[in-house]
Design brief:
Elements lengths: L11 H4 L2 H4 L34 E9 L5 E10 L13
Antiparallel strand pairs: 1-2
Amino acid sequence: MESIGALSIVDFCGRDDRIHELGGLSFTSSPVTVPTTISGPISLHLNTRYDTTDGLWAVTVVDVAPDGLAMQLAGGQITASLRAIDEHQISR
């Protein structure tokens, strides 16, 4: 059944990232008890093995409120076949 955009009036997915986390792997820290600033580049190193010709990785940094509301702070994605790093493009 097609919704023809009718669900766009419900902003659940835009305000709460929990639905995107259902099929993913999650790493959770202890609660942060003081105001904290996250600044600068985020680096993630993955060692993976595929049983297909290519793959896509998507990573998000999410702030989870005490009531469970999950707000995405940052995100990125990469296609495995395009994973080469140009060291000259990395800012130091």
